[in-house]
Amino acid sequence: MSDARPDLGLLELLVAIDDNGSLGAAARAVGMAQPNASRAVRQWEQRVGLTLIERSPRGSTLTAAGTVVVHWAREVLADVDRLLDAAAALRTDRDAELRISASMTVAECLLPAWLGDFRRVHPDIKVQLQVRNSLQVFDRLLAGECDLGFVESPSVPDRLHSATVAHDRLIVVVDPAHPWTRRRRRLTIAELAATPLLVREPGSGTRSTVDVALAEFPRAEPLLELGSAAAIRTSVSSGVGPAVMSTLAVADQLDRGELVAIPVEGLDLPRTLRAVWRPPRKLSGPAGQLVSEIVRRR
């Protein structure tokens, strides 16, 4: 009987015949031309082998079989309405969630304040934050696994849109006892490149920026690869070795004298920190609200 299944428009027409007392009035009520309405009912009667309406000059009335069919048609249409209401509720719940992937510097140094302000204004929006490196953030966005990303990478894939949310700068830091703190002349880029450094893993925005800046010089192998700015910061202050880090990540340690910034001749590494998202270009919903509030407060 699958070929006899009516579409919802036909069910609405049958209910309208019962409500309005004639096929013509029913057709007008559902926005259908009367010849089309008459043909649709007649074709379905033929498919199911039942006469549903009695046609007369005074109008159309339901047969006994038609009355039963219309009763169930009303039930089906009510179930469809409930289905649509449930889908709308699910969409509302989804729209009230914000899935964020953020690179380490942004997640550690900026997002706590941003999200704190956002939650005070939008307490009903659930925020999920996962910390990844910049490359992983791009991958998650392109796979549809998050709604919004924050990265410190020097470039953004063509398939994504972006907006500037902050700026920082990369600097060389060492512990106070490191020999570089007693140098009388500035460190050169070549010397920095030739020095084993504490670095983030490949795919990190900080790692990518440093690799680009030192690409023309012979490079030493990394001293250690570590998965977070906090781990690198602790290792540097413990005397393990030098590192190139964001000013956002080491500001407090520099102020307390736990780390020392080492100037490098001819090396300046400003960075643009970005929000990134999938098309369309205009960001909407909770993600759009968050980015708009961050940009407005810059």
UniProtKB/TrEMBL annotation:
<dbReference type="GO" id="GO:0003700">
    <property type="term" value="F:DNA-binding transcription factor activity"/>
</dbReference>
<keyword id="KW-0805">Transcription regulation</keyword>
<dbReference type="Pfam" id="PF03466">
    <property type="entry name" value="LysR_substrate"/>
</dbReference>
<dbReference type="InterPro" id="IPR036390">
    <property type="entry name" value="WH_DNA-bd_sf"/>
</dbReference>
<dbReference type="Pfam" id="PF00126">
    <property type="entry name" value="HTH_1"/>
</dbReference>
<dbReference type="GO" id="GO:0000976">
    <property type="term" value="F:transcription cis-regulatory region binding"/>
</dbReference>
<comment type="similarity">
    <text>Belongs to the LysR transcriptional regulatory family.</text>
</comment>
<keyword id="KW-0238">DNA-binding</keyword>
<protein>
    <submittedName>
        <fullName>LysR family transcriptional regulator</fullName>
    </submittedName>
</protein>
<dbReference type="InterPro" id="IPR000847">
    <property type="entry name" value="LysR_HTH_N"/>
</dbReference>
<feature type="domain" description="HTH lysR-type">
    <location>
        <begin position="6"/>
        <end position="63"/>
    </location>
</feature>
<dbReference type="InterPro" id="IPR036388">
    <property type="entry name" value="WH-like_DNA-bd_sf"/>
</dbReference>
<keyword id="KW-0804">Transcription</keyword>
<dbReference type="InterPro" id="IPR005119">
    <property type="entry name" value="LysR_subst-bd"/>
</dbReference>
